[in-house]
Write a structure and sequence with these properties.
The protein has about 350 residues and is an alpha/beta fold. The protein has 11 helices and 10 strands. The strands form 2 sheets. Strands 1-10-9-2-8-7-3 form a 7-stranded mixed sheet. Strands 5-4-6 form a 3-stranded parallel sheet, with helices on both faces. Belongs to the universal ribosomal protein uL1 family.
Length: about 350
């Protein structure tokens, strides 16, 4: 009997406590769980499996790793100028030679008493700033053929195929040294498979045969003549001379540093006359500078080095002796104003001379 009374009292006390708690929490918002708590609890219950990764070779690893790479643009302007002829090169600025001095230095190293290669090629290494007009844009890789005044043995096989109509144009192309010249009959031979385009390194065309040549656009692809690559024009002799004896060069961007471009080509051999080598170098630099973006106040050609294998010595020259250092944007209005100012100055000078004569 006593146990029954005590149990009833405990039930009554519990019921009173529950009623008190229910009186405190009256809103339905408090009864709901906080948003996302159940989802977090479920994620805690899931076991995370750690995958053990073994050794991965360097050429198979993820290429998206952000590595701090060295800037390829060489700048030694902060270094001091050497005061004598004996110094450690890495602590001072690179010496700048004239073209004649650099050629003479390479001739001395290729003397019979040293390398014994008097007719070694004279190579040119050109470093470019490939940034375009906008900071987040870059100049695309380009391949060009620079026309030079003095030809040399470049060691390449260059077969030139010329498409043109008219007896005068065909005879002009043959006299200039084209490998094969023809018109509609050549187009038919190519479409029938009797003539292979892969046997010829360069394809040149006259505008008079362009409507018939469009049928070969799919076969030629990048070899199709166009004015931009200077393979389509009326002066066939000049184009053939350019592609048979000119300097072929390619500007390529670095894979990791898009604003760094590099050109390596040859301008002649060491047994050529110094003035001829210098004129070939001038023509090459002017051709490279013709592709420069329209950026004011910044260099496009950053550094030019002369090298002659098998020697590893590279000699720096001043390229801005042959090309303008900076790009200057000139408008027609400013040029017209300058011409008017020059005319006024001439008129005033003539008047002064006439007054002085009187």
């Amino acid at each position: 009997m006593f146990s029954l009374i005590s149990s009833m009292r405990s039930v009554l006390v519990r019921q009173q406590n529950v009623d008190k708690l229910r009186s405190l929490h009256t809103t339905p918002l408090c009864e709901a769980a906080r948003k996302g708590t159940r989802e977090k609890a479920r994620k805690k219950k899931v076991k995370v499996e750690v995958k053990k990764v073994g050794f991965i070779p360097h050429n198979q690893r993820d290429k998206k790793v952000n590595l701090q790479r060295q800037n390829l643009h060489f700048d030694d302007s902060w270094k001091q100028v050497p005061q004598d002829n004996v110094y450690v090169l890495k602590y001072y600025r690179w010496p700048v030679y004239t073209v004649a001095e650099a050629i003479q230095c390479h001739r001395e190293t290729h003397h019979p008493s040293i390398y014994n290669v008097p007719n070694a090629p004279l190579n040119v290494e050109i470093e470019l700033d490939m940034q375009a007009e906008k900071k987040n844009r870059f100049v695309d890789n380009f391949q060009r053929m620079a026309m030079i005044p003095h030809k040399f043995d470049h060691g390449e096989e260059r077969k030139i195929l010329v498409f043109t109509k008219g007896n005068e144009e065909i005879s002009e192309a043959r006299q200039a040294g084209a490998s094969l010249v023809g018109g509609i009959e050549l187009i038919k031979d190519i479409t029938n498979g009797e003539l292979l385009l892969s046997d010829y390194q360069f394809v040149i065309a006259h505008p008079n045969i362009l409507p018939e040549l469009i049928a070969l656009r799919g076969l030629m692809k990048r070899k199709f003549p166009n004015p931009r690559s200077e393979t389509l024009g009326t002066n066939l002799a000049e184009m053939i001379e350019r592609f048979s004896n000119g300097i072929s060069y390619t500007a390529t961007k670095d894979e990791h540093q898009q604003d760094f471009g590099f050109i390596s080509t040859s301008v002649g051999t060491l047994d050529m006359d110094t003035t001829k080598l210098e004129e070939n170098l001038r023509s090459l630099l002017n051709d490279v500078n013709s592709v420069r973006p329209k950026r004011e106040g910044e260099h496009f050609i950053k550094r030019v080095l002369l090298k002659s294998p098998p020697s590893s010595e590279r000699l720096k020259i001043d390229a801005f002796k042959y090309i303008p250092e900076f790009y200057v944007k000139t408008s027609n209005k400013t040029s017209a104003k300058s011409n008017e100012a020059l005319d006024q100055e001439d008129e005033s000078s003539e008047k002064q001379q006439a007054i002085a004569a009187q």
